[in-house]
């Protein structure tokens, strides 16, 4: 396997790093995590135990991806984005004792193919980010995001649709949307957007 891990990065011996991937300074990849081919893990990023990451994924500096997150191929995670894993976090149990790993059940963030998570966005598990969706910088995602949706705000709400290029889609009327950059067409029905081919 040919991949690059900077000297100050920590990659657990049980983790898998795919061909052509790069792990930069001070990044940490925990036990049994799987990183696909041609991925980039930026400075200071954290990949939790058993996290599964597809091919061609970019995880920017200081992003925190806690287990049991799943990232499909082509996902982008912006700087300092956070994927949580505990819907009701507490440091201590009701008796005041420190909670341990077995005292709670981790829930994850599932990010589908090609989706982008903006800088400092927070995805509150359990939640799914749909295919080619885009989460704006600083957004707080508390509900599932549909395929191709652009969401922003706190809490995040849909503010439009985006294509594979990342451009906002243009409304052509009658439920038809178009990517102004490459001409891809989409059809919207009942709040769901599906690819409809190119013009």
From TrEMBL:
Residues 178-199 have a biased composition (Basic and acidic residues). The keyword Protein biosynthesis does not apply. GO terms for molecular function: transferase activity. Keywords: Transferase. Residues 172-199 are annotated as: Disordered. It comes from the Bacteria. The keyword Magnesium does not apply. This is N-acetyltransferase. InterPro entries: Hexapep, Trans_hexapeptide_repeat, Trimer_LpxA-like_sf. The lineage of its organism: Bacteria, Bacillati, Actinomycetota, Actinomycetes, Glycomycetales. Signal peptide: none annotated. Pfam families: Hexapep_2 (PF14602).
